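tool=predict chain=A
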Amino acid sequence: MDRRSALLADLNIATARGLEIGPLTAAVVSKADGKVEYIDHLSTEELKKKYANETGIDTDKIPTIDHVLEEGKLPRHLIGGNYDYIIASHVFEHLPNPLGWLRDCAAILRSGGCLALVIPDKRFTFDLTRSLTTLAELIESDLLDQRRPGLRQIYDAATCSARIEAGITWSRPPRQEELAPTGADVDAFGLLKAEEGRDDYLDIHCTVYTPTSLLHLLARTARLDKHPFRLKSFHDTPFNSIEFYLQLVNASEQSPQERETSFLDALKNCVESSEPWQSESNAPSKQTTTSLLRPGSRLRRGIGKIRSFAARATSGSPSKLSSQDAAFSADQQASGEHWDRVLAQGNSGLRLHWWEDPSTLRHINQLVCGEPLEGLHTGFHQKILEKLSTNPTTIRALSVGCGTGAKEIELIKAAAGKLQFDFQCFDVAPAAIEAAKTLAREQGVENQITFSLADAFRLTLDNNWDLVYWNNSLHHMLDTDVAIEWSHDRLRKGGLLAMDDYVGPDRFQWTDATIQRATGLLQSLTAQQRTDPCQPRRTVREAGGRPPIDAVIATDPTEAADSSRIRPALNRLFPSSLEWIPTGGLTYLICLDELFENFRSVDELKQLQDLLDIDAEWARTVETAYAVALAIK
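tool=predict ok
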């Protein structure tokens, strides 16, 4: 479930009265959405002054603040306001007295009102090496009615915080230099200011949690009747995220024991590891997979992938999948587990990546088929159907790397009334295969497509196929020469190989020229356009660069392992029939990934199109990340 859906589930924000704490430039609910009021530690003008020189924060986008905190506490005049909901994103951990704050929230909410929280998971932030907050610490700060971070909290933040990139521990263990600082380095947190008794408010993470630890603390403090909330919903930290989500309900009419139980019951939904980079528990259940198959989700647009280890296969008669065929190499297993975790993430609901941006998709389709069509791979599929128009009514097709099957199913639907398919699809990600079978049934095409959890290269398949279909999976073959030879061998005379894929440098190691050009494009953007839409105080990137190879391999050992040899292999095996269409990536992959949501106005969308036009020319003349290829045997 995406962030916004997790926070607003079952809330009718169009009619409900809400309060959002600390929206800055990224409010979860806008005033256009409903009757929401904003509260912050400073007034609108004071916030604009404070952040006037802050890189990445567009002060023009700071909304009108309706209420200002009083000595760090919710204003007294809001008590009894009967609000329907309160939203607090990355607020709870900054509070010197969380229990007192919870009671203040309850005093503002109506009975049954909702408190929606976003909490950072310490395992994936600079809190990594800090100790978890204890029940005794919560009780102490509450009894002292603490209004400011205490010396104990300041010292802990100063001496125990790590210097680590957010989220990196999903893919690898922390390095020694990324752990807690020592010596004079602690002064960066303002420790000396605290010792000297200055009045400056030191804004730190006063408390530290994991999903499990917070559920336990909320359960125990509910039992002690230190707050009146019960748990309504809980969403564990998604893979590659740094935060988890809770909805609490103001339920003072319930007994402390009932409220305690609501938190304890949620513990079964926590998948927690102190070494998440080694965790194998992120794959979704069948129930979770099915729930993600709704229109608009990232996986419906075909991002789930097989990463199969290509090996030569002999031609012969078709055979059924045996238990031996389902055995995978270590690389395949690691890759399948990675893409099952991707499937579990769902989507953010924002335009973060190129496949979520309509302007970019129209641009790519224009390059591929000459028309600015809507939708992912639409132009690619139109080209395929043009090539297949003289083929038999029933098309025998193979797909290696089907993921959730969304792309193949969209091709079948695009051909409705013209061609029938007998699609055989393979993947090594178990959850993706289950999702694909469900999607085929939902779309009513299960009689035209079959999904198998298998390495296609280990099966005995004949050489009489009309279509071999590669869609963002060929670049995961460890030997692309072998994979393309296998594809050539499977096709009948006159059969079509169709590919829409990453074809750039191995492991995304761009040329110096591309990095220099990408840096120039990034520096042409405003600071706000380089800001993370989900975390407005974070700049996503200011220069082009190459990802560390070890980090790419740690995430997925098959990622772009042999991608640079795709075009030479196609030229060799299809010397006279290859149609090669570079579709770019300089702008939409290297520069603007995670940033598309920052292009909204008419002028900004025109700017985006200009950047995409530069991208297309660079792909044609210098280096492309992606390409479409169509070749007849």
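The first strand starts at residue 17 and ends at 21. The radius of gyration is 27 Å.
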